[in-house]
Amino acid sequence: MLKKTKEKHHREMLNELDEVILDKEYIIKDESPYLVDYLYGVSDIDSKIEEYLDETGLDEEWIMFYRCLINKEVLNSDEYDKLKIIGEALFLMRNENDLEKFKNDDVTKDLNKIKDDTKEILEKLLNFIKNKENNPNLTEDNLFDSEDIKGEFVGFIKEHNALRSEEEKEKNIYKMDKFLKNAFSNKKIKFNKTDFFKEILGLNKSKINSIQNKYKKEKK
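The structure assignment produced for this chain is given below.
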């Protein structure tokens, strides 16, 4: 995840979680009851956890990682709909004991599946553009004008893969639609939104139109 993107999501989380208090059963002796105290980077956690994040590649996704480890009961409300609740047994990870519990949980599988699904979508997109342009030498990075644009696009895909409710997916598609339209018209990406939605995500034009109409009305 790009530093700029990390900082943006970090600020967003600090605002969302400023008043959230952890469930007592998750608080270790002499530990602060406020989740916000733990949201200052991977370096704040136990070295064994840092090693695990590094080994799995999750060190680059620590914002999502923290979001997945928050006690589900604390955040199971509409106010925290931006947070992704993945799996059934969520908790805050601070030490090796928490790590062992996490590694034996289904949360890791869900996180890895999101990464795998994202990779698959990028590969499909690259192959589609290669065939369309008859250019076998294209690489994934050639599809984007910069790392920032690529990072934003990958962020939308990860949201798409992580979200479970149809309404949240539609909201993300609406935001992605506007991003892709603007990026393509400004020559920031090498593919257009119609190709991406139809050929890669399997969404037809009428579906996209209905999403556009629905959320345009909500914006007014």
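Interim note for the steering committee: The radius of gyration is 19 Å. Residues 13 and 39 are 8 Å apart (CA to CA).
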